[in-house]
Protein: Glutathione-disulfide reductase
Amino acid sequence: MTFDYDLFVIGAGSGGLAAAKTAASFGARVGIAEHEALGGTCVNRGCIPKKLIVYAADFALQNQMAHQYGWSQCDNYFDWTRFTKLVDKHLDNLNDSFSKQLQKAGVDLIKGYATFIDDHTLEVDNRKITADKILIAVGGRPNLPDIPGIEFAITSREMFHLPYLPKRFVVIGGGYIGTEFASMMNAFGCKVTVINNDELILSGFDDDVRAHIQQSLTKRGIRFFHNSTAKEIKLCEDGLLVKIKGDKQATVAADTILVATGRTPNIEKLGLEKVGIELAEKGTIKVNEYNCTNIDNIYAVGDCSGRLQLTPVAKAEGEAFAKTVFGKTPKTVNYNEVPTAVFSRPEGASYGMTEQQAREKFGDDVESFKTEFKSLLSQFGGSDEKTLIKIIVQTENQQVLGAHMVGEHAADIIQSLGVAIRKGITKQDLVETIGIHPTTAEELMTL
Ligand SMILES: Cc1cc2nc3c(=O)[nH]c(=O)nc-3n(C[C@H](O)[C@H](O)[C@H](O)COP(=O)(O)OP(=O)(O)OC[C@H]3O[C@@H](n4cnc5c(N)ncnc54)[C@H](O)[C@@H]3O)c2cc1C
Ligand SMILES: NC(=O)c1ccc[n+]([C@@H]2O[C@H](COP(=O)([O-])OP(=O)(O)OC[C@H]3O[C@@H](n4cnc5c(N)ncnc54)[C@H](O)[C@@H]3O)[C@@H](O)[C@H]2O)c1
Structure:
């Protein structure tokens, strides 16, 4: 049987674009469907606009310490509306560049929402399309917990289009998104409250990183309700009221409430039941290590397939799929080798095992080395916030198993260190490496 395409990809986000371009580079005839802007969550309502807001908020923080560096009072008016228009313009340019990249790669873009008709046929924009292989890369969207009045809350998607900065900002959920937006809004001068159903924010990170960031954000003025959730949200004359249940009972007033309690895959309307695709327990698409579903010509990558919900992971899965299926080089993704960062202020970043994971695997054969110190910037800037650097080492062979950091440039430092750890360096290798002075990273060599 002949098909319209060798590969048809549903969703032009990080995973889908990487897979489509890589498969086309091996000579496959590729089509891709997208019903929103090209680039998906990361480009349009995730990593990129988020990081631009982080940069905008950094000016506010630098402004606060500028006078200690000899600056006179600086103008501190921030025009949020002007800024978000500039961000939108930048994103339009990125969308255009994705369109050009697809054209250059010879991938057909079909604008519209794709649904399954059978295991080789899709419908997109009232058009039937057949393909030998189909890749599902549909990403996810925010969860909405079952809280009365949740309709008054917004999600990360709407955060990028707020008409103005709120004065009182409440976040439900202390994960990546909740922590990052809490930090940004605090820097802009909003009164911020975080409600999280755990003792510490940022589950999954090393406990020292979690505690350090939570303490730093508390010192910066963010109020935390831990082991708590929102019981009810009500609209009142003065804005919104959130009733909190948990360790402490309280009612907090807000202008904007962000709900960031995890994400759910975009699969309800895909018609997966028509082809009998199996789901995993948490409702994501079940795949094997080669990204194949239980139907042998249908694959899934990225957030909808329930591994790590990060852009570089979605890209790596998309490329691994294309190399395996069209490049004839079987390739898998090693989920233990994924660096990650939370772009709060202070910033946190990690590579490899947390202390807890290392102790679960190696028992007593584990040592952790930790330093907390005031960076030169904050010493001179008058802040008492400390930088944290921690490495986890297997005692027997001194191999570094993980590295964790909170402080300036943590993400960039851990990204580079990850290369060395992946290659199996020992603690001695770190100690013998000559540092660059004066930097924060040189402290790694003194642990
Ligand atoms: C606020 C926020 C900040 C983030 N920050 C970071 C960060 O700093 N670093 C990081 O690594 N990760 C970050 N992430 C996570 C990252 O954005 C995702 O892991 C990544 O985008 C997943 O890529 P994907 O290809 O799986 O899905 P997506 O990027 O979501 O792409 C899926 C695409 O499929 C389309 N689609 C869905 N259904 C259909 C259909 N039936 N037909 C046609 N098209 C369809 C969607 O419109 C979408 O464009 C962030 C996420 C959020 C929400
Ligand atoms: N810097 C980055 O790389 C980055 C940034 C943003 C998002 N992301 C990705 O997007 C994913 C989704 O982010 P997220 O922050 O929505 O999810 P998350 O899984 O990171 O965090 C959700 C948080 O909400 C809490 N929670 C859950 N239900 C709750 C409730 N009813 N009341 C109070 N707290 C509740 C959880 O304990 C957890 O701390 C992340 O897991 C991450 O993979 C990455």
The domain at 150-261 is CATH 3.50.50.60 (FAD/NAD(P)-binding domain). The pocket of flavin-adenine dinucleotide (ligand 1) is lined by residues 10-16, 33-36, 40-42, 46-47, 50, 113-114, 137-139, 156, 177, 266, 270, 302-303, 309-312, 314 (CB under 6 Å).
